[in-house]
Amino acid sequence: MNKQEKLEQRRIEALSEIVGSRLEVERMAQRPRRPDDSLNVALFQAVAKKLSEIEESAKKATNVNDLNDFIEDAEAQEQFSAYLCPASEVQDEGNLTFDLIEVWGVPKSETKKLRDNLARKLESKDADEARSALFQLFGEESEWDDYIDGYEERMNGLAWKLFAAIIALPLAAAFAIHFTYRFSPLLFFGLFCASVAGACASIMAKMPPLDLSLSGELSAYRRRIFSRIGVGVVASLIGCALLAWGFFPISIQGQTFADDLKATSTTTCTGVTTLVLIGIPMLFGFSERTLTSFEQRVFGNSARLRRQNGGSI
Q1: Residue 252, φ and ψ in degrees, nearest 5
Q2: Per-residue pLDDT for 313 more than 50?
Q3: Residue at 41 is within a domain
Q4: pTM (2 decimals)?
């Protein structure tokens, strides 16, 4: 999709949003009301006029950023529908908005703050005060809507990238290990790809939920992704090196990890050998705590050797 097509697609979305805002304002103005609760006609006409101007501007916009700004302007105008709400329905409208925000998955601590700050004002017998509280609540609803949409967009995009890496990297690792007997540096490349795949799987399994992202974690999350991958790769390569060294003589059916590594230098690996050489570094990359357990074993062995040798090795 080229730039012009993206612009036109976003224009359609923006115009739909703007029309929706205008319909919401008109819907609120058309609600039945008591004889002593007259509609603020001047405000309604001003908001309708402003929304029409925003719509015309969106039709002529030449870039996506302007369209995004027009959507925000329309949402801001839609909030004025709070002052057009019949006085007898302000509290009900507020409760529906509270419920909607909670359905979105907003943390209960945040919705509780909103209720504590605005619920009593919505119950006020002073219509202007109640409508003012509803106006603030509509503003909060709009901000949460934008925030959740941004959060979902970022997390979905990141999840797809991690998923693609998890699929592609083990395949690249298998290809590299398969041809290691022809070019030995391919072994390191294969182990590296498997390690990164394991780290990506770990990141995908621990993506921050919405409530944690509110603490500022989301803004630093991209940086932590690279650090987590780096730690996972280093831990994986260290763990593979220790296994290859034979420091931990772990064997399954008489075959150790070191034996599988040696086999790659002389002949084409079998499917089982390739699977082992991919799975072990992925395990280390997925959880560096696996390497920590090895460290504890190292220090435990060292302490035991010191005792056996009178305090020194």
Answers
A1: -125, 120
A2: no
A3: yes
A4: 0.70
